[in-house]
What does this fold into?
Amino acid sequence: MSSLIVEVVRIDEVRPHPDPAAERIAVAVIKGWRTVVPKVDDGTGNLVPKYSVGDEVIYVPPDAMLPPEVAEHWGVAKYLGQDGRVKSAKMRGQMSYGFIADVEPICGEGFIRSQQMAAMDPGWVTTFWVPEVGDDVADYYSIVKWEPGENFNSAELEPENPAFRRYTEIELFENFPEKISVGTEVVITEKIHGTNSRVGLIRSPQEGAEPFFVCGTHESQVRQDVQSHYLVPLRMESVQRLLRKLYDETPGTQAVVIFGEVYGYVQSLHYGHQKGCVSFRAFDVSIDGNFIDWDRTVAACSAAGVEMVPVLYRGPFDPDRLMELSDGPTTVGGDHIREGVVCHPVVEAMDEFGERVIVKRISPQYRLKQDKISDSH
It folds into this structure.
């Protein structure tokens, strides 16, 4: 999952809409995002983009969920999903992600509380200030992130072992377009639309006892005496073989965890699977919470017979290449689109904030499909 950032930003670029007939709209570029903006009369009868390069605005990204009061205030209610979710859209052939709102004075009371107080007492006054570039105003406007629910029943869960580390929170490339330096050797893999799974081999706290297996979702540990998709990789001999091999060759290790995707008949993209059938592919391995380099992961998975996610590209990082590869048909199987891509350095790296260097980009086609599916439920 990625962070929700509703940030005050400067517009990097304003481009003409690629369709010459789209006379009333233009395209604003913000970080790695593109969003359609209206044109207005400049007072002489000419239509010009409402915003210019360098303008300070609030950028509200896809999958933000707005309270009704905020949606009405910004005049975007009719464009949102049934749950107030900001969607991606194609406007005259141009993908548009999220929207722009004008910067306005804010106060510590929050937008909704401030509106309520002003309605009761027009003379109500508190301390207001204008947010600056880089400020995240999500809390002020009570905006939260939409997330799909995990595929499990609470009765399937058990207490989570602290050594059973969770996977990286992967940020969207559009929010952090400079997270990976241009030219860094990277691997770009297809992001499979399934359900995030992890399996581990953990050292027993009892002296002399054998290490034990665990499995789970992105956020929970699953019991092993139930029927669950999350048990599929743990019951594969190749996965157990991989866990034992890495555990044994790393003296003193506390836990080896394999991260991957259970996919097939579990989500809206089936990858050629029949009803009731699922598969597993690995995409990362950690030892005591430290992710191992890509080449070691590939070699270990290959030796154990564990299938990995498809590699679409390996070479110097190029943002245009990342965006190009995020769209198109799946390479996993089945006649449908891919969900997107994940990109990280071949040699593991951390940024200046101590966070893992890794990003993802969702396919524009998938975003449109996802929004339509979500609106029907």
Remarks:
- The two ends are 21 Å apart (CA to CA).
- Residues 237-248 form the longest helix (12 residues).
